């Protein structure tokens, strides 16, 4: 299989080490990976702000760039959700877009559902208490975990992958799927509500004695990391790909 590595623009600028960790995980599995330089923003910030017409150019560039790959893999659930859920109005049942929509995966979803990962192919030890933040879109769009309102047995693909890591202790949170309050531009437009929600989410992790907070979307983690740093809370944020790639806190 030929994989196109989709790196969200904000991660390329702010979190290059997480992007490298994503590449390392896929490379350790002996997969053929390319990073197309023509890629740019998926358009999610514009969508969050109601500027839907401004997305069309970005959507068409994305499909043109990634249509040649068997799979498209990204370390950001929200950006993957953007491509899968919000590009259709710009394509009239277009075969190229239909292929891209069916082929784009968040990296944990890809490892869990497509690869069926049994082991990481590297010896990874992470002897820390880890709390898993499952972002809203990860729950309800990508099905990375079970949404609580369904009232069915809980399952988390992120936790299943983390269980492959030696010495890790995954803590139980009071609310497995509570929103962190980020919501893209919502955090700017409704700052007070956004911060209050972020504080509640962090408190749940602290009350569960988590040393590390992890998740599959750096935008949510970035929001909470800012609150943690400002309030000097005794917890650290790491993207799940860092843990799976053997990065130490």
Automatic annotation (TrEMBL):
Top-level taxon: Bacteria
InterPro entries: Cys_rich_dom
Native source organism of the sequence: Malaciobacter pacificus
Molecular function as annotated in GO: oxidoreductase activity
GO CC annotation, single: cytosol
Name assigned to this protein: L-lactate utilization protein LutA
């Amino acid at each position: 299989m030929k994989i196109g590595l989709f790196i969200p623009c904000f991660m390329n600028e702010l979190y290059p080490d997480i992007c490298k960790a994503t590449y390392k995980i896929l490379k350790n599995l002996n997969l053929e990976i390319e990073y197309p330089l023509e890629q740019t923003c998926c358009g999610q910030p514009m969508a969050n702000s109601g500027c839907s017409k401004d997305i069309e150019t970005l959507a068409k560039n994305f499909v043109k760039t990634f249509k040649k790959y068997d799979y498209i893999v990204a370390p950001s659930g929200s950006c993957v959700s953007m491509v899968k859920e919000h590009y259709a109005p710009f394509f009239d049942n277009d075969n190229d877009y239909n292929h891209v929509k069916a082929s784009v995966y968040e990296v944990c979803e890809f490892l869990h559902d497509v690869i069926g990962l049994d082991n990481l192919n590297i010896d990874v030890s992470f002897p820390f208490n880890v709390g898993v933040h499952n972002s809203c879109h990860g729950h309800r769009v990508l099905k990375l975990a079970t949404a609580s309102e369904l009232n069915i047995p809980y399952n988390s693909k992120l936790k299943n992958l983390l269980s492959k890591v030696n010495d890790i202790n995954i803590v139980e949170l009071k609310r497995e799927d509570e929103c962190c309050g980020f919501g893209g531009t919502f955090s700017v437009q409704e700052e007070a509500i956004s911060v209050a929600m972020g504080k509640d989410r962090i408190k749940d992790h602290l009350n569960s004695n988590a040393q590390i907070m992890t998740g599959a979307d750096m935008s949510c983690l970035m929001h909470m990391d800012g609150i943690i740093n400002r309030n000097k809370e005794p917890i650290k944020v790491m993207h799940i790909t860092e843990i799976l790639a053997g990065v130490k806190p």
